[in-house]
């Protein structure tokens, strides 16, 4: 059986500020449960900004390879298409990106505790430069 191909022509991709190598699409925010389902698109062969996940994340790789990198850029993990990962909140900063030949498309189901941040965006020295919360996603969706 030939591998399935994901057709993302109907996805409304948006940049996140001036963050390079990264697009996203908010699919759904479950208000009563505080869960956000968002597609992320990571450019092939690139790494995005340093950040850390402060809420639990369930991820499913739809296309390509989802690559995780240490803060210094060293490759930590490769998740091929079809991989489901359930990750708790973590203070460990990292970068993410697509594999060498194809953009990675990954479904993130973010599951924060009430009032918990989703992410912190970090400068290369580890300084927090932005907080991402469910309110951030709500404001983006409303705009």
Automatic annotation (TrEMBL):
Membrane-crossing ranges are: none
Pfam families registered for this protein in UniProt: Cupin_7
> Residue limits of the ChrR-like cupin domain?
7-90
Top-level taxon in the UniProt lineage: Bacteria
Recorded protein name is ChrR-like cupin domain-containing protein
Organism encoding this protein: Sphaerotilus natans subsp. natans DSM 6575
């Amino acid at each position: 059986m030939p591998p399935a191909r994901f057709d993302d022509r109907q996805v409304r991709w948006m940049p996140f500020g001036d963050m390079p190598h990264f697009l996203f699409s908010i699919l759904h925010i479950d208000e009563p449960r505080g869960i956000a389902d968002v597609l992320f698109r990571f450019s092939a062969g690139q790494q995005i900004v340093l950040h850390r996940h402060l809420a639990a994340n369930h991820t499913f790789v739809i296309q390509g390879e989802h690559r995780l990198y240490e803060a210094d850029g060293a490759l930590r993990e490769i998740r091929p298409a079809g991989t489901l990962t359930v990750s708790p909140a973590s203070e460990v900063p990292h970068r993410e990106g697509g594999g060498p030949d194809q953009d990675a498309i990954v479904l993130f189901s973010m599951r924060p505790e009430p009032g918990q941040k989703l992410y912190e965006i970090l400068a290369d020295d580890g300084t927090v430069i932005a907080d991402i919360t469910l309110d951030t996603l709500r404001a983006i969706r409303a705009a």
